[in-house]
Amino acid sequence: MARDLPSRLWMDLTTEDFATRDMSGVVAVLPVAAVEQHGPHLPLSVDARIGSGVLDAALAMLDDDAPVLVLPQLPVGKSDEHTAFAGTLTISHQTLARVWFDIAESVHRTGCRRILFVNSHGGQRALIDIVCRDIRVKLGMMAVNAAWFSMVRQDDLFGPTEAGHGIHGGAAETSLMLRLHPDLVRPSAIANFPPVTIAWEDAGSTLTAEGAVGFGWQAQDLHPSGACGDARLATADAGGILLDRSAAALARLIGELAAFPVERLQRSPGFPPGLGAAA
Asked: Per-residue DSSP letters for 186-249?
C-alpha cells in the first residue's frame, strides 16, 4: 500500500485510514483456499499454506507504494469432493458464494473498485467465476480471480503426464510444501498416486479430471488414497522454482489490475446511472 499507511493488511488499518483516502485505485486481494485431505503425506492445510506462501512472495516483489490491501484469508472452501476422507472441512457452494459476495460488497462500500481472488484450491474455480460475474453485474466492480497452478508452467519440472494429471498432492504441491513447510511433510508416506485418468487417456478417452472435458468426481474416484500424482518427483528446489514463478506471475497481475482503467467497464444500457456500472 502507499507509504503513508502502516500495513498492507486490510484488518490492521483504522476506519480513519479508509475514510480519509481515495480507495478507488486500490486492489483488494482476497485469498481463498481449502482445508482438506491431501493424501497420507501432506497436511490438510496444503492449499491455505501454499496460497499464503505464494501471496507473501508476490507482495515482496511489489514496490512499497503499490496500491494493494490484503483481506484476511478465508482458509475453508468448497471441498465436498474430499468428504470421504476424515478431517476435510467444507462449505456449501451456496453459503460460500454468499460469503465471498458479501465481503466484496463490504470492500465496495469503502470506494474500492478492484478485487482479486487469489485461489489455491482447484475445486472451487467454477464457483469463483460465478461470484466474480455477480460482483461485476451487481456492484460494477472489476473482479478478477487467479490460481497459482493455472499461471505457471510445470511440465519442464515434472514431465507432461504429471503436469496434466498430478492435480492433488502430487509433485507440484509436495514440492511447494517441501520448500515452504518441510516440517509438515511426511517423507515416509511419499509415493506415486497415479490417478485413473492416466489409464483413461492412454486408452483414448477424452474424459479428464481437469481439462476440456470433465465430469463430477470425488477424490476416491481418481485414486483410493485421495491424492493424484507422483509425489516421488517432488523436491524443495522444484518447489522454489514454482514459488518464484507463481509469485512473479501474481505480482504482474496485481500491477496490471492496479493500472486497469475501471471506467472501461461499460454502464448497463437502459438502466439508471450507477446500476451495473463501475461507479
From this structure: -GGG--EE--HHHHHHHTT----SSSSS-----HHHH-TTS-BEEGGG--HHHHHHHHHHHHHH
